[in-house]
């Protein structure tokens, strides 16, 4: 194989895997738009609908932790194929179950248990996709380009999270359950493309169980906690933003939803802009990423606190999104530099699990802080960001980590 053909195959594999991440983001987010109205239509209580989403999130946290060893044994590409195939099948079956319920062929109780089981299987499968892809891309990228690769991983998933609700809204015009079938079909196509076009000659399968890692004493542990904290902040701000906009500007529900949409889009666009363009273009290192991310994050909290206008909220959301765009690749790149190559898959799995934990805790913690006062969450986040930076400086200087 010529060098140009090899380079072309590497680029194709890279974009196919990033497309899989985008599909995972779609699968994670479109359910928030599609499931609640359908659940109400078939007679499920709002609390039961919420438990379906919570069960999936909790399963993801546990399953992601376990996938590291599986990836080492069966390979990164096979893990992606299994995860995407599970995703395609369970999403399509969920659509079928909901369709049967809408047609009154299944009771609300039966539907709940079927969908609950399918959400568990869905989460078990996709929990292995992110760590598999992260490990693959790190193995096929030199160290100086690692931060830009990780930034592209974050951007791809973020784009999928944005597209998910849009897909649900557009495709629902074809039928309430149409998004489930179409998104399942796209995920299946992605799995097939990976089967035929993505090869991993660099993976060495581990047939013997590797020694257990005590993560609590590993130098990477502070960065795993930072990863969880950054996702906690992101999901928590998304949760309380509707409360803030409604309370600060005295809006009704329809007006709040409209204004919230613009705020969320602003945050997402700035995050994607930083991760897809700025980080790869300037090949930013870990130190620059961490200081830039924390600096912009602190500015965002100050804007939330002191700027009372809606333009101020948009500015704060833009700064917060940009800060996350720098912070996410900085934290994850630091993690990958602190472990050996044969531990990358278990690290990626642990990181995915910690991020899932942060995503689950963020809305609860920040909503609770919001009840204490409208500005309390932002003061808390500012303190957390500054603490994160101090811990990073300590790790870099005292523990001799070279980033």
TrEMBL record:
* Gene3D superfamilies membership: MFS general substrate transporter like domains
Q: Which InterPro entries match?
A: MFS (IPR011701), MFS_dom (IPR020846), MFS_trans_sf (IPR036259)
Start and end residues of each Major facilitator superfamily (MFS) profile domain: 13-398
The alphabetized UniProt keywords are: Membrane, Transmembrane, Transmembrane helix
Q: Which SUPFAM superfamilies did the record assign?
A: MFS general substrate transporter (SSF103473)
Residues passing through the membrane, by range: 12-35, 47-68, 80-99, 111-138, 150-172, 178-198, 219-240, 260-279, 286-307, 313-339, 351-370, 376-395
Give one Pfam hit by family name: MFS_1
Q: Which PROSITE patterns match?
A: MFS
Specify the protein name: MFS transporter
Source organism of the structure: Marinomonas pontica
